[in-house]
Specification:
Layout: H1 2-22, H2 34-38, H3 49-56, E1 63-67, H4 75-82, E2 87-92, H5 95-107, E3 113-117, E4 130-136, H6 145-155, E5 156-167, H7 176-185, E6 189-195, E7 199-205
Bound molecules: S-adenosylmethionine (SAM).
Residues 26, 28-29, 37, 68-70, 73-74, 92-94, 97, 119-120, 136-138, 141-142 line the site of S-adenosylmethionine.
Length: 210
C-alpha cells in the first residue's frame, strides 16, 4: 500500500516538474510513451480521431496540416478522408514519432502524406497553403504557444480552420479560456466548440480578409 502511495506521489511530482519545465523549453512527450498517445481513452471520447475529424468535415481534395502529429493517430484517417486528390502534411519534432506515423501510412497504402521533421517556430509550414489544421493535445508542450498559433494562422488559407483539441487526461492540458485568449491574440475567430470538461475541441477560423 505504502509502495503504491510512493509510486503515485512520484508520478505526480514528475508530472508537475515536467509541466513547469515545459514552459521554458521544449520537453515533448517521450517517444517510448507513444503507445499511450495512440490509446482511445474511454472517458475522453471527444479526443478520438474519428470524432475530431467528423467535426472538421474534411472533403476530398483538401490540404490538411497535422501539426505535431505524434505517431499518426489523426494523420492516417485524415489522409483517407481527403483522398488521393488531397494532401496531409504531418509535422513533428521527433523522428521516432514520425517513423511510427510513416509505418502506419505505408500499412494503409497511402501516398498523399508528406512528413516533415520540424519544431514549432522553425518556419517550415509555408503560408496560405492549408484548408484545415489539427492541433490535438499538443499546445501545452510548446513553450511559445502564441508563436505556434501565429505560425499555423499564417499557414492557413483565408477562411481555413484550425481544430484545437485538449483533454484533461493530458498532463499539458490547456483550458478553453487559455486557448481562446491565445487564439484571439493571433486574430483567429472562434467558429465552434464541441465536447465537455474532460475533452473538448475548439474550431478557430482565419478570417477571409486575413
Ligand atoms: C501528445 S502527442 C500528440 C500527438 C497527436 N497530435 C495526437 O493527438 O495523437 C504531442 C506531440 O507533439 C510533439 N511536439 C511537442 N513539442 C513540439 C514542438 N515544440 N514542435 C514540434 N512538435 C512538438 C511531440 O513530439 C509529440 O509527438
Amino acid at each position: 500500500m505504502s509502495l503504491l502511495f510512493v509510486a503515485i506521489a512520484l508520478a505526480v511530482v514528475a508530472t508537475v516538474v515536467w509541466l513547469i519545465a515545459s514552459r521554458r523549453q521544449s520537453l515533448p512527450c517521450p517517444v517510448w510513451l507513444r503507445w499511450c498517445v495512440e490509446l482511445d481513452n474511454p472517458f475522453a471520447k471527444n479526443n478520438r480521431a474519428a470524432v475530431i475529424l467528423d467535426h472538421l468535415e474534411l472533403q476530398p481534395g483538401m490540404t490538411v496540416l497535422d501539426f505535431d502529429c505524434g505517431p499518426g493517430r489523426l494523420t492516417v484517417p485524415a489522409a483517407q478522408r481527403v483522398g488521393p486528390a488531397g494532401r496531409v502534411v504531418s509535422v513533428d519534432l521527433q523522428a521516432g514519432m514520425l517513423a511510427r506515423a510513416k509505418e502506419k501510412a505505408q500499412a494503409a497504402n497511402l501516398s498523399n502524406i508528406e512528413f516533415v521533421q520540424a519544431g514549432a517556430g522553425e518556419g517550415k509550414l509555408g503560408r496560405g497553403r492549408f484548408d484545415r489544421a489539427l492541433l490535438v493535445t499538443v499546445l501545452g508542450e510548446i513553450p511559445d504557444r502564441a508563436g505556434a498559433l501565429k505560425e499555423i494562422f499564417d499557414a492557413l488559407k483565408p477562411g481555413g480552420v484550425l481544430s484545437v483539441t485538449e483533454t484533461l487526461f493530458d498532463p499539458h492540458y490547456q483550458s478553453r479560456q487559455t486557448v481562446s485568449r491565445l487564439a484571439g491574440e493571433v486574430r483567429f475567430r472562434e467558429r465552434g466548440y464541441f465536447g465537455n470538461r474532460l475533452a473538448y475541441t475548439v474550431h478557430l477560423e482565419k478570417p477571409t480578409n486575413g
